[in-house]
Design goal:
This is Succinate dehydrogenase/fumarate reductase flavoprotein subunit. InterPro entries: ARM-like, ARM-type_fold. The protein has eight helices and no strands. It folds into two domains: 75 residues, Leucine-rich Repeat Variant, CATH 1.25.10; 62 residues, Leucine-rich Repeat Variant (Alpha Horseshoe), CATH 1.25.10.10. The protein has 195 residues and is an all-alpha fold. It is extended. The mean pLDDT is 84. α2 packs antiparallel against α3.
Length: 195
């Protein structure tokens, strides 16, 4: 097969709105309109809202500045009264994985603040493949937070933990949980153990 190149006439479409632009000059000076206004108003009727609550703790920056922290380095931050500092310390723990991280991460599931528990639960889900003993998470099945209960079933369900007879009782209890995620993870664990 041979391909031949044939000359084609230029195909131009006239655009009426652009007919007045001169084609000989490459640059056309456009007059800029004057700026109206100035900085945003700080009057009471403005749309800018003041931030609610106190500013973030400077200790958060201290946690983030730590390079290769150990569990001892993070200890004071994990016990800080500010939940933001504790949340950042748990996230740092998950990121760096110092020796003894798993016990501290499991302890964070008992924190008073829901966001700290969420970060710890997300960390456990992320680290399920490297946790030394994932079945230890299952002891948290009786905690009131449904997020913690769901991770207490999810993490061990990815292992052969459900084959253990003691685990069967815990999973049967989880099947009756009020939270749908907990029930779904329990079903999956029981299904995997029967397969």
């Amino acid at each position: 097969m041979r391909f031949r190149k044939r000359p084609v006439a230029l195909y131009l479409v006239p655009v009426p709105e652009l007919q007045h632009v001169p084609s000989q000059r490459p640059v056309v000076a456009v007059e800029q309109p004057p700026l109206v206004g100035g900085p945003a108003s700080t009057a009471a009727g403005t749309r800018i809202r003041k931030t609610a609550g106190p500013p973030p703790s400077p200790r958060i920056a201290q946690v983030l500045a730590l390079e290769a922290p150990t569990v001892d380095d993070l200890g004071s931050y994990l016990a800080d009264p500010d939940a933001g500092v504790r949340r950042t310390a748990v996230a740092t723990l998950v990121e760096h994985l110092p020796d003894g991280y798993s016990a501290v991460l499991l302890h964070a599931l008992h924190d008073d603040d829901g966001e700290v528990r969420r970060v710890a639960a997300d960390g456990l889900r992320e680290l399920v493949d490297v946790l030394p003993r994932p079945e230890v998470v299952a002891v948290h099945l009786k905690l009131p937070d449904p997020l913690v209960r769901s991770v207490a079933v999810y993490v061990p369900s990815l292992t052969r933990w459900a084959d253990d007879p003691a685990a069967r009782d815990a999973l049967e209890l989880a099947l009756k949980d009020t939270d749908a995620d907990v029930r779904a993870y329990a079903r999956r664990a029981l299904y995997k153990s029967s397969a």
